């Protein structure tokens, strides 16, 4: 016999209600949801977290509800591109994980449908979209993931400033992802725009950094692995990714943060517009926002700071009070992203290194 948690129970109630919107049991939506309760799945999740966390999230949801959930691991840029290419016949039902700058870009293209989960009431306002387009499920601070052995060989201290990354001794020793494909890398780019006072100044910094970049990876988590293997001295990642690699045996890695200020991500979850399994997708979102859903991360060594106040904490999570975080405007970042990443492609990535 299938056992339903409160998420599955909410879904079952919607189905029995003959296709009514899930008001009162699985949240509300701002669009016509006449078919919302007609389907129990299966659902497919576009997942922006690490592979093992994507697997753990979907497995736990299926265990709790009996609804089959599968995932495809994609970076933020890839997700927006895939959603746009299949807008008239969506291949995904939910987007889960990855910085909400990308979600904002998807909202601007009509790729996300607003859904306000009852679980979202517990989430602080600064971690959710006021129109219900996305809800934040974790926070990650952008930092430096350095290989101490490699730094020692180069005679370079652990970096604690953005300017430290411009040291000629680090030529070819900094690994960062490409902001067109990676939400992490776009956070890096927008951090420079914000802290330096404008797009031109931010691009100038990235142009200087270009000379020290080993390669621009597709995935935002890859630079931490590259540093962990000793292929570069410094990787630019969210700090929880570096902690995960430390836990997995890359013991040369050390985490540091730029003293003049750094950016951060709010990792989101959202309903894909036009999902043909809307009731099941909404049940998944309820689960993802809940403390139980957010706690799944720690079971696979992912120590993001969680947004649900009832979720578990760990001393392996970053202490945001100890980090100088910039005033990161997610809406402005989302609006600027298409043009800014195009500029990066043309003005920086395509240029030879000195």
Structural overview:
Strand 2, helix 2 and strand 3 form a beta-alpha-beta unit. This protein is α/β, with parallel strands linked by helices. The chain has twelve helices and 13 strands. The longest helix is centred in the last third of the chain and has 20 residues. The N terminus is likely disordered. It comes from Actinomyces glycerinitolerans. Keywords: Signal. One of its GO terms (biological process) is thiamine transport.
Top keywords for this entry?
disordered N terminus; signal; thiamine pyrophosphate binding; globular; thiamine binding; two-stranded antiparallel ribbon; 354 residues; Ferric-bd; 37% helix; D-Maltodextrin-Binding Protein, domain 2; 2 domains; 11-stranded mixed β-sheet; alpha/beta; single chain
CATH class of the largest domain: Alpha Beta
CA distance, first residue to last residue: 66 Å
Question: How many domain units?
Answer: 2
Quickly count the helices: 12
Estimated structural class = alpha/beta
Q: What's the pLDDT, averaged over the residues? A: 91
Compact summary:
The chain is an alpha/beta fold and 354 residues long. It is built from twelve helices and 13 strands.
